[in-house]
Design goal:
Elements lengths: L7 H8 L5 H15 L4 H11 L3 E2 L4 E2 L3 H12 L3 H15 L7
Antiparallel strand pairs: 1-2
Helix pairs in contact: 2-3, 2-5, 3-4, 4-5
Length: 101
C-alpha cells in the first residue's frame, strides 16, 4: 500500500513539475538531428527514434511521419535550411516554457 504523499500528484509537487527524462530525451534528440543535417540517414534514424514519443500537450506525435518524410527529403535534395526550419518548428511546438504549464 502506498504511503500518504506518494501519489503521482504528490511526487510531481515535490519535484516542482520538472520535465521528465523522457521529455529531455526528445529535446536532446531533436537538437542532435539539427546538428547532423549533413547526414540525412542519421537524421532519419534519429527522427524514427523520436517517432516513438508523443507530445501530450499538442495531442500529436513529436515528429509526425509526414514531417519526418519532409525533413529527410529536404536534406536529400540539398535544402538544408528548409529541413532545419521544419526541425525547429517541431522543437518549438514540443518545448513548453516553465510558465506555460
Amino acid at each position: 500500500m502506498a504511503e500518504p504523499g506518494d501519489s503521482p500528484q504528490d511526487k510531481a509537487y515535490r519535484v516542482g513539475f520538472k520535465r521528465s527524462k523522457r521529455e529531455d530525451y526528445a529535446v536532446d534528440m531533436l537538437q542532435r538531428a539539427r546538428g547532423n543535417l549533413e547526414d540525412p540517414d542519421q537524421v532519419d534514424r534519429i527522427l524514427r527514434d523520436i517517432g516513438r514519443y508523443y507530445n501530450a500537450i499538442a495531442d500529436q506525435p513529436i515528429v509526425s511521419l509526414e514531417e519526418r518524410r519532409q525533413i529527410v527529403e529536404s536534406l536529400r535534395a540539398g535544402r538544408t535550411a528548409e529541413a532545419a526550419a521544419l526541425l525547429d518548428a517541431c522543437l518549438g511546438r514540443y518545448q513548453v516554457q516553465e510558465d506555460d504549464s
